Input
Amino acid sequence: MGLLGRVLVGAGVPTLVAAAAFVTMLGSISDVRDAQGRVATSQEAVIAAEGLSRAVGDVALAQRGRLLGVADSASAELAAADRVRAQASALAELALEGPGEQSRVADLTAASDAYLRRSQRGADPAAVLLAAVDHRLDAFLAQERAVAAEQEREASAATARAVTAAGIGLAASLVALLLVAIYLTRTVSLPIRRAGVVAGRFAGGDLDARLRVTGVGEVGDLQRALNAMAAGLASARAELTASRTRIVAADFRARRSIERDLHDGLQQRLVALALDLRALSADTPSALRPQVDEVTEGLVEATEELRDFVHGIQPAALTDSGLGAALRTLARRAALPVEVRADLADRLPADVESAAYYFVSEALTNATKHASASYVEVSVTVVAGLLEVVVRDDGVGGADRSAGTGLVGLADRIEALGGRFTLVSPPGEGTTLTATMPGQRGGPATG
Output
């Protein structure tokens, strides 16, 4: 089942539970409504029966008054008889559904009607019927009160069932929702969150990070795709690093070869020619001697320019004495005070020393031309096989790798050897350049 199907199932489970609870609650509410309706009908029957009892009593009272000659007793008797008929009719029209209720109502209304018909013919038969009516009324009222009490108990029980069904439905819905949320969190949310964290590590350059494939469906596919992408990027980066390292090494070898050729060939030839001219100067006619001396000085100047050029390609001090001595020579030639602290017990690979030397050289040039610095501090250390070169100045700060000050070239040179380049340059607080490179061949810098 894919991610969409699991989400739909997860959303459907609490929905079904809530629907079932709602249906159960509706049924209980319907039972409550029916029970309350029966209670109301029983109460109406009790009220109607009590009204009938009062009306029959009024008829008997008016009848005695008529027999005793009380004025208006006849009209009072007729009015009371009308009330008896009205109450009996109202009682008969009630929708009483209890066992025997309709027969008891019919018996009571029949007795009341017989009493009214016989009450006009004499006291004795009417008195007998009145007693029968009173007996039936008392029995009916007692039974209806009992029925009403039973109906009220049923209504209370139905109400309790409705409340219980609503509570159970709500609790079941919440539990189902919680379980679904836990399931979706474990199978969807957490794997995606972990994928986001690892993707951030990928973006930060940590291509060795890998996801544990725990997701299902599309989430698992995403995790596997991220791992495959990281493996591909790591392989491509390794190939790129190796290629850049080979290019830098080839450049270094070419520079060394050019430096040796110029130093041992052309430079020595120019020095020899200058010495020969100086030796010939004594035998040269006085008229030509100024011209010979001028040519000799030109050769000397060309030799100095060539020496500076050769130094720019590959300083002799770096080749002969190592990085520390070359940096101190560079500091003495700098246009501003430079303090060098180089803690190097052994020589480093030639390409590493060359990269570190030109890193410091370019940093000093930037400090002089762009940072308006008055002091520069150079620190070189080797810790756990890593060469760290730090150049700090007290200039204006605000340096930017994209500002065209040679920082991009510095970074490329360092990173081509598997190193890292960092720049810290808050405005007004100077600039710190740091290069970290492997002091031996064998892998990228991670420090």
In short: Residues 442-447 have pLDDT under 50 and may be disordered. The two ends are 45 Å apart (CA to CA). The first strand starts at residue 338 and ends at 343. The longest helix spans residues 123-203.
